[in-house]
Design goal:
Phage tail protein, two-stranded antiparallel ribbon, Phage_tail_collar_dom, about 5% helix, three-stranded antiparallel β-sheet, rod-shaped, 1 helix, Phage_tail_collar_dom_sf
């Protein structure tokens, strides 16, 4: 394996970090003991910026390149954390839709609405503007208002960061 750039992040199939690398788990490191790595990543991922800094924490996170998304215009800054693992939709997020109301054009045959549908009655319809609403108990509520998973299909793999290596020169 070629010598890595200092601060380079790679995917690694093992359950440990090889010598000279660290798992990307947000560990707090001493600046005085890792000043060259600190010169590259600063305290972007945490630490106090005076005596400590943090490695990126990619546990349960999907890495995303920094910059402006040309499709949406959304800008993502390096070190930013965003997103949620589960979400509960609000009414405004549901697709516009209608519900069919079933009725019969034949005259009604019973007084109880149990196990029945609306039926024809004498002059059941009006051309006047509506001036009232059905009682809320006339319609049943559906849905459990429970969050659902917001995760895309994934395979877990470790990310490791090079603690030593070639100092990357800027173009």
């Amino acid at each position: 394996m070629a010598e890595p750039f200092l601060g380079e992040i790679r995917m690694f199939g093992g359950d440990y970090a090889p010598q000279g690398w660290a798992l990307c788990e947000g560990q707090i490191l001493s600046i005085s003991e890792n000043d060259t790595l600190f010169s590259l990543i600063g305290f972007t991922y945490g630490g106090d910026g005076q005596t400590t800094f943090a490695l990126p924490d990619l546990r349960g996170r999907i890495p995303l390149h920094q910059g402006k998304n040309p499709s949406t215009g959304t800008t993502f800054a390096i070190g930013e954390k965003n997103g949620v693992e589960s979400v509960t939709l609000t009414v405004s997020q549901l697709p516009a839709h209608t519900h069919t109301v079933h009725a019969s054009s034949q005259p009604g045959t019973q007084n109880s609405p149990a196990n029945a549908v609306w039926a024809k009655n004498t002059q059941l319809y009006s051309t006047n503007a509506p001036d009232g609403s059905m009682n809320a108990s006339s319609l049943s509520t559906v849905g459990g208002n429970q969050p659902h998973s917001n995760l895309m299909p994934f395979t877990v793999i470790n990310f490791i960061i090079a603690l030593y290596g070639i100092y990357p020169q800027q173009n």
